[in-house]
Write a structure and sequence with these properties.
By secondary structure, the protein is α/β, with parallel strands linked by helices. The protein folds into two domains: 155 residues, Rossmann fold (3-Layer(aba) Sandwich), CATH 3.40.50.2300; 131 residues, Response regulator (Rossmann fold). Helix content is 43%, strand content 21%. It has eleven helices and 14 strands. The radius of gyration is 20 Å and the shape is elongated. The two termini are 28 Å apart. The relative contact order is 0.17. Keywords: Signal. This is Monosaccharide ABC transporter substrate-binding protein, CUT2 family. GO terms for molecular function: carbohydrate binding. It is found in: Cell envelope. It holds the Pfam family Peripla_BP_4.
């Protein structure tokens, strides 16, 4: 997925479209609009479009990350109305691949953000912008071992099974834990990115297990996990690490409910994604993979610029 070489538009159809569609709508389609993380992507995209006067930008997404068919329909609609380009965060690596291929065949450049498509579809998009989710999972796992020790049980609270970001983030977290400690992994458990589901799952897991640590792998999951810790009276007694950086998670770091939360550059995904599509439409080349980074935000660094630049 990480095509580090500089890519150019190799399809004659797409190259022609890049010349013709020098102006027009760039459609930003995310996994859901009901999340501060994705609204921060919107802020980045909105900031970027200000620098591309020949283009307009629309922002859309389904009501939830599990509404995959709805997201497919949004991309199909964008292709049908002939947008100039698309910035897409695919909720499912397989389900979104055919419509991205259709965009390519229609001469519409696509920048993929956050989660990748299934392998074998790289030729249908021109840039992939994401956190290195495997590296992020490994960083979280290393902190878990440092804080919780090398034995005991650690629960893994995940979100949607099989999503590209989840495979790297959770998979590499588990692999690092198992390869560098005697910790027993409990789970993963999948919340479908629903905070209430994560809260209920975590409540049950806390009651059934004597945990030394717990990892919540995205924003709604980590919030539900943190609230369950607080409601059970176990906040601060278990090493808890979250993912993403909205106000709820920041408060949990400040209070000690979370030892840390790993925060992606969501603003950068929107900003750099729109910039990449605009550059392609202008006939320029872009990097095939653009790493948007991650910061482990703790009580010690939450007020420092490196954390403030990614929190939202």
């Amino acid at each position: 997925m990480k095509r580090l070489l500089t890519t150019t538009i190799v399809s004659g159809v797409l190259a022609a479209a890049a010349t013709i569609a020098s102006a027009g709508e760039i459609a930003v389609i995310v996994k859901t609009t009901n999340s501060n993380f994705w609204q921060n992507v919107n802020k980045g995209a909105s900031a970027a479009i200000e620098n591309h006067s020949g283009h307009t930008m629309t922002f859309n997404g389904p009501a939830s990350e599990s509404a995959i068919a709805d997201q497919v329909a949004l991309v199909e609609n964008a292709v049908n109305r002939g947008v100039a380009g698309i910035v897409l965060a695919p909720s499912d690596p397989e389900a979104l691949a055919p419509v991205v291929k259709r965009a390519f065949e229609s001469g519409i450049p696509v920048a993929i953000i956050d989660s990748g498509l299934a392998e074998g579809n790289e030729q249908y998009y021109q840039a992939f912008l994401s956190t290195d989710n495997c590296a992020a999972g490994q960083q979280a796992a290393a902190m878990m071992i440092d804080e919780a020790g090398t034995s005991g049980k650690v629960a893994v609270m995940s979100y949607v099974a099989g999503v590209g970001s989840e495979i790297g983030r959770v998979g590499c977290f588990v692999e690092h834990i198992e390869g560098n400690s005697d910790i027993e992994i409990v789970g993963p458990f999948y919340s479908q990115s629903q905070m209430a589901t994560a809260l209920n799952q975590t409540t049950d897991i806390l009651a059934a297990n004597d945990l030394v640590g717990i990892f919540g792998a995205n924003e709604p999951t980590a919030i539900g996990m943190g609230r369950a810790l607080e409601q059970s009276g176990k906040a601060g007694t278990i090493t808890a690490i979250g993912f993403d950086g909205n106000a709820d998670l920041q408060d949990m770091v400040k209070s000690g409910t979370l030892v840390a939360t790993a925060v992606q550059g969501s603003f950068q995904m929107g900003e750099l994604g729109v910039n990449a599509v605009a550059e392609i439409l202008a006939g320029k080349s872009v990097e095939g993979f653009i790493d948007t980074g991650v910061v482990l935000v703790t009580q010690d660094n939450i007020d420092e610029p490196k954390a403030q630049n990614v929190l939202y």
